[in-house]
């Protein structure tokens, strides 16, 4: 019980640290994904020409503040998502493995994938309203606007405006693709991380430590980005719409592919990679550290408990 809480706090703190460093790329990614929506190639102006150009243009026109729009929402979202993810993963995995193999120490790739996805999907569902407001805050630009320009003063103002206008349903706009996206991402993040780690130890003789954490999380981050990006693009577009431009995530997917081509689903991929790679590296490496730290604290508290009882 106390270890689950420990993992929850450790995961959340780790994720917020990671988010602070990478939020600017996320802002660029969202604007790249929304740019030229439902327009054939060449028909729409390309205001943001790529990740570096995007960072440059936003910093020049809106300052660092422009890159960091929606950061507080990102924190709340990360606490919710990664808390759920890292917190539920091990307990879920262990219970399922115990059920199937009668032994919690068995490493089953299928069970790992399932547990990762299930805990991620739970987190995405819980955190979707924050991600929605975050996306809208990030696409707002007084200089080079893409997407619907929602005039939210801050995260709280955004939430209340949406709630007043559209109710709970409005807050949960786009929750479907958000769950799919995160399910895809989570289903590969931890399994590829542990998989890469085991391989690196076995074949390259690497030892437990920062270098191993760095290498394994890089591999994991790349795979995560590849599978997560297409549903992420659909999600950004569902979050942008206020009316009923699309009647479902599937509608959004098919119309995007039809008008902009299949590769449009990978719009903003480099920006996403620029965010995901350091994010995954920092989250997983920091989680290793915070988990270790948390275990130490827990050990101390627990042993103190025991001492007091004696
Ligand atoms: C965003 O949503 C609105 C509808 O609310 C739509 O008109 C617009 O085309 C969408 N995309 C962009 C890039 O503006």
Outline the structure in words.
α1 (2-34) crosses α3 and α7 crosses α9. The protein has one domain (4-305): Mitochondrial carrier fold, CATH 1.50.40.10. The protein is globular. It has helices at residues 2-34, 51-67, 71-101, 109-139, 155-171, 175-204, 210-240, 249-260, 269-309. It has 310 residues and is mainly alpha-helical. The structure holds 2-acetamido-2-deoxy-beta-D-glucopyranose (NAG).
Number of DSSP strand runs: 0
CATH architecture field: Alpha/alpha barrel
Bound molecules: 2-acetamido-2-deoxy-beta-D-glucopyranose
Low-confidence parts: none
Secondary-structure-based class equals mainly alpha
Strand content: under 5%
Given the C-alpha coordinates, what overall shape results? globular
Please state the average pLDDT score: 89
Output the CATH class name.
Answer: Mainly Alpha
**Can you identify the CATH superfamily?**
Mitochondrial carrier domain
Cα-atom radius of gyration: 20 Å
Distance from first to last alpha carbon: 22 Å
CATH topology: Mitochondrial carrier fold
Largest sheet: none
Protein name: Mitochondrial carrier
Organism: Pseudovirgaria hyperparasitica
Pfam families: Mito_carr (PF00153)
Subcellular location: Mitochondrion inner membrane
List the helices and strands and how they pair.
Elements: H1 2-34, H2 51-67, H3 71-101, H4 109-139, H5 155-171, H6 175-204, H7 210-240, H8 249-260, H9 269-309
Bound molecules: 2-acetamido-2-deoxy-beta-D-glucopyranose.
2-acetamido-2-deoxy-beta-D-glucopyranose (NAG) binds at residues 34, 37, 146-148, 240-243, 245.
């Amino acid at each position: 019980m106390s270890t689950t809480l420990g993992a929850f706090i450790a995961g959340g703190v780790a994720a917020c640290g990671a988010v602070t460093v990478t939020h600017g790329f996320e802002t660029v990614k969202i604007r790249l994904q929304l740019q030229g929506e439902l327009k054939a190639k060449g028909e729409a102006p390309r205001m943001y020409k790529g990740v570096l150009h995007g960072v440059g243009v936003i910093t020049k026109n809106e300052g660092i503040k422009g890159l960091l729009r929606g950061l507080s929402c990102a924190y709340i979202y990360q606490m919710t998502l990664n808390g759920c993810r890292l917190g539920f993963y091990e307990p879920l995995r262990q219970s399922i493995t115990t059920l199937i193999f009668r032994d919690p120490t068995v490493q089953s790739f299928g069970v790992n994938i399932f547990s990762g996805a299930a805990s991620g999907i739970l987190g995405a569902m819980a955190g979707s309203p924050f991600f929605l407001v975050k996306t809208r805050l990030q696409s707002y630009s007084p200089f080079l606007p893409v997407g619907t320009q929602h005039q939210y003063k801050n995260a709280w103002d955004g939430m209340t405006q949406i709630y007043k206008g559209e109710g709970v349903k409005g807050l949960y706009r786009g929750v479907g693709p958000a769950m799919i996206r995160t399910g895809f991402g989570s289903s590969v993040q931890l399994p590829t991380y542990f998989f890469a780690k085991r391989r690196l130890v076995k074949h390259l003789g690497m030892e437990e430590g920062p270098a191993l954490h760095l290498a394994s999380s890089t591999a994991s981050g790349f795979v995560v980005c590849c599978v997560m990006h297409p549903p992420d693009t659909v999600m950004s577009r569902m979050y942008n719409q206020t009316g009923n431009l699309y009647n479902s995530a599937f509608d959004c997917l098919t119309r995007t592919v039809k008008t902009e081509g299949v590769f449009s689903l990978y719009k903003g991929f480099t920006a996403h990679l620029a965010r995901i790679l350091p994010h995954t590296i920092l989250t997983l490496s920091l989680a290793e550290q915070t988990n270790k730290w948390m275990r130490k604290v827990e050990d101390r508290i627990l042993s103190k408990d025991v001492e007091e009882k004696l």
